[in-house]
Amino acid sequence: MKTHIQAMNSKERFLAALELDAVDRVPLFYQHLGAAKWLLQNTGLRIRDGFHNPKTFAELAMAAYDMYGFDNVMAGWGDLLVAAKAHGMEWKFPERDFYPRPTKYVDMTEIDNIQPVDPLEDPTWSVLIRATEIMKDQIGNEVAIIGCVETPNMIASEVVGMENLLMGCLMDPDIIAKLLKTITQSVIRYGEVVNEVGVDGVFMEGSMAGGEMVDVSMFEQFDGKYIAQVIDSYKSMGLNVLLHNCSEQPFWKEQLETGPTAIHLQLSSVPISEVAPAVKGNTCLIAGIEHRELLLNHTPHEVKVAVRRTIEEWGRDPGLIMGPGCELPYRVPLDNIRAFRESVEQYGKM
């Protein structure tokens, strides 16, 4: 006999799924500032201003919840460079209002001078923290507030540059290990700070863990063990960790061993039929619908078909969240976002 589950709000639904508990329907995960074009048009705000003003940052993030109706907001977007900037990388904003771009990496000879960073003391990183406080205060009872940080390895790639990092792993692994240990301290401190604010979890960008970039041994030496240290620290505080990997050849099995609460994968790289048996009953799966082609260029009907197929392949077991494979493209059609949400509401009812 099917058990009736009372209606939940977005926060209750999202947290229940993370905890592998029963939900009224499958939750929807929203990443970064996806489909930003429509948010900027609707609010009249600018991305670049959000990096300097916590109120603007929070207003844009909360506008995404109002417009798109997913079950969380991201207390972090475009922050794939924020932590790197805090450790010495320099950036600039493009002429078109969008995320900043690197202009100067830290020289490899300067790694010894890099120190751990307290996000509260960094002029840019602290903006995201203050924005998190605003969101927590205004909508924290109804929607899941998810912090955001990168794995130490990914931050390192943006501090010194990807090519320099990979060469350093091969030619001077000791100096890279020193850099990673320093950054790991900063990432752990970030968790302490947002835990005090009261976030419902932290999204961790871990897409360096893929066969198109490194082999498994390099992942284990320069990535996996630092991810595990961060996750151990976060979980000791009671923080949920949503580990993301949108690489084409993800080391998702190795990442599972680091102990995240949830793992977020794009299903175009790893079919749900392969992942489901490995995660059910142990780890929540955020199933990423193909975003670069399907959600951007195909029809609402095709989006609905993909959602229905994914949910049916998963079955009725708890522990599933639906989302795009990565951040929704800037101009993804509103009709496709609506079809995504409505199909999850229709086929994801439990």
Q: Would you kindly provide a written description of the structure presented here, covering whatever features stand out?
A:
49% of the residues lie in helices and 13% in strands. The chain has 350 residues and is of the alpha/beta class. It has a single domain, classed as TIM Barrel, CATH 3.20.20.210.
Strand content: 5-15%
Largest β sheet strand count, sense and barrel closure: 7 strands, parallel
CATH class: Alpha Beta
Instruction: Give the helix proportion (percent range).
Output: 40-55%
Please give the alpha-carbon distance between the first and last residues: 13 Å
Q: What number of domains?
A: 1
**CATH fold field value:** TIM Barrel
Q: State the total count of DSSP E strands.
A: 9
C-alpha-based Rg, rounded: 19 Å
> From N to C, what is the helix and strand string?
HHHHEHEEHEHHHEHEHEHEHHEH
The largest sheet has its strands arranged as 1-4-5-6-7-8-9
Low-confidence stretches: none
Determine the number of helices (DSSP H or I, runs of at least 4 residues): 15
CATH architecture: Alpha-Beta Barrel
Please state the average pLDDT score.
96
Shape: globular
Structural class by helix and strand composition: alpha/beta
Quick recap of the structure?
The chain has 350 residues and is an alpha/beta fold.
Key structural traits:
7-stranded parallel beta sheet, two-stranded antiparallel sheet, 15 helices, 9 strands, globular
Helices and strands in order:
Elements lengths: L9 H9 L17 H8 L3 H4 L3 H15 L3 E4 L6 H5 L3 E3 L8 E4 L20 H15 L4 E7 L1 H9 L1 H10 L1 H25 L3 E5 L10 H21 L4 E5 L6 H5 L5 E5 L5 H8 L4 E6 L1 H7 L2 H15 L5 E5 L9 H14 L3
Parallel strand pairs: 1-4, 4-5, 5-6, 6-7, 7-8, 8-9
Antiparallel strand pairs: 2-3
